[in-house]
Amino acid sequence: MKVLAAMSGGVDSAVAAARMVEAGHEVTGVHLALSRNPQSFRTGARGCCSREDAHDARRAADVLGIPFYVWDLSERFAADVVDDFVAEYAAGRTPNPCLRCNEKIKFSAVLERGLALGFDRVATGHYARLLPGPDGVELHRAVDGDKDQSYVLGVLGPEQLARSAFPLGDTPKPQVRAEAAARGLLVADKPDSHDICFIADGDTAGFLSSRLGSQPGAVVDTDGTVLGSHEGTHGFTVGQRRGLRLGVPAPDGRPRFVLDISPAERTVTVGPREALEVRELEGIRPGWTGQAPVAEWHGTVQLRAHGEALPARAELRDGRLLVRLERPASGVAPGQAVVLYDGTRVVGSATIDSTRHGTTGARDAQPVAAR
């Protein structure tokens, strides 16, 4: 089988490529150049788009004895991931760019080009498992729960999963590093990338301000009383506690949290922690890793990349996904993804559009227009 191995320059993708070679496949390595102006070196352990990472990927390919290429996808990455990220924050939502990158770049642009070039599969270093099921290949959680990345792969459809390979899904991360060292891969001890790869210094607020500028507004309580000011709603996310700069303390002395963000009115609403509790949410653009549920669905949902699995019920209604949580979740923001699980199997996902406080039926966050 001809396999295109996506090699980021890190230990996971290098070992994934090595395993595909060892399995007897005809493997070609490809590094994705996603930054228009890549730095020469990483900033700490952040990011995966530097020239250093490209060189590390090439050296790993040389050790494995496989062909290696660099594909410049920076324009598509800027349009589909970076610009989308900025637009989502400008609209008061909190996106996960890793999901968008998997959906639009790694398993769309790369897979499309790979298939056009005659490759059968795209292999990555994601921690997830692909297992045979009655209706085809199924996406499951990784054995290593701490490294599991099935959440950010929940946007993939059955056709994409059938053309993918995740060789590390059954292996704990320490064993992957040990294997890399045994294979002579110099990236064995390289730190993992984290946070947002295109914001190398980790200053998300600063990055957004440089793109969106200053848009002053008010920080208010649930009664509309002005408590402070801000330079842009894009600097906040639902559930945030720090950096609110409030001039008026709460009557009970307890901390306040961001409850709602309204870019149109340029207001940020804050309140007590208990007001963050959500019992119901609605999702837009639902997608399925296999067959879509035809009736009310029961299972667990995950609302963050490494969040808790919460028991829930869900149903499709007029093209939207209505999810009812059996116990409340806190700090759920529009723009995040809700990913559905049946045990360890990923069923599908949707983008959270609005949330509701289930005990009263009141809406906590107003729905936003689908993009």
Automatic annotation (TrEMBL):
Keyword field contains Secreted: no
GO MF, any single term: tRNA binding
tRNA-specific 2-thiouridylase MnmA-like central domain ranges (all copies): 207-271
Sites where the protein binds ATP: A6, M7, S8, G9, G10, V11, D12, S13, L32, G125
GO cellular component, one term: cytoplasm
Enzyme class: transferase
Enzymatic reactions: S-sulfanyl-L-cysteinyl-[protein] + uridine(34) in tRNA + AH2 + ATP = 2-thiouridine(34) in tRNA + L-cysteinyl-[protein] + A + AMP + diphosphate + H(+)
Enzyme Commission no: 2.8.1.13
Active site per UniProt: C101 (nucleophile), C197 (cysteine persulfide intermediate)
Subcellular location: Cytoplasm
GO biological process per UniProt: tRNA wobble position uridine thiolation
Keyword annotations: ATP-binding, Cytoplasm, Disulfide bond, Nucleotide-binding, RNA-binding, Transferase, tRNA processing, tRNA-binding
Alphabetical list of InterPro entries matching this protein: MnmA-like, MnmA-like_C, MnmA-like_central, MnmA-like_central_sf, Rossmann-like_a/b/a_fold
Start and end residues of each tRNA-specific 2-thiouridylase MnmA-like C-terminal domain: 280-352
Transmembrane region(s): none
NCBIfam families: PRK00143.1, trmU
UniProt function note: Catalyzes the 2-thiolation of uridine at the wobble position (U34) of tRNA, leading to the formation of s(2)U34.
Family listed: Belongs to the MnmA/TRMU family.
UniProt name for this protein: tRNA-specific 2-thiouridylase MnmA
UniProt organism field: Auraticoccus cholistanensis
Origin organism lineage: Bacteria, Bacillati, Actinomycetota, Actinomycetes, Propionibacteriales
